[in-house]
Amino acid sequence: MTTASAATPSPAAADDLGGGAGTALAPPSAPSAPSMWRRKPGGWLAVLPLLLFIAVAFGLPALAIAIGAFTTTDDAPGGAQWTTGNLSLSVHGAYFTALMGSVKLSALTALLGVVLGLPLAQAVVTSRFRALREAVLAASGVLANFGGVPLAFAFVATLGNSGELTKLFHLGDHGWSLYTFSGLTLVYLYFLVPLMVLTITPALEGLRVQWREAAQNNGATARQYWLHVALPVLAPSLLGGFVLLFGSAFAAYATAAAMVGSSVPLITLQIADALSGNVLVGQGNVALALSLDMILIAGLVMAVYVPLQRRSARWLR
Amino acid sequence: MTATATEASAVRDAGGATVEFRGLRRVFGTTTALDGLDLTIRPGELVALLGPSGCGKTTALRIVAGFEQPDAGQVLVDGEDVTGVPAHRRNAGMVFQSYSLFPHLSAADNVAFGLRMRGVGTAARRKRATELLELVGLPEHGDRFPHQLSGGQQQRIALARALALEPKVLLLDEPLSALDAKVRVTLRDEIRRLQLELGITTLFVTHDQEEALSTADRVAVMHGGRLEQCAPPAELYDTPATAFVAEFVGTMNRIPGRTGNDGTVEVLGRRLPSRGEARPDTGVDALVRPEALDVTPGGDARVVTASFHGAVTRLTLALADGTTLKADVPSHRAPELPAGAAVTVGLPDRPVLVDDRTA
Question: Distance (Å) from the C-alpha of residue A233 to the closest C-alpha of chain B?
Answer without folding.
Answer: 6
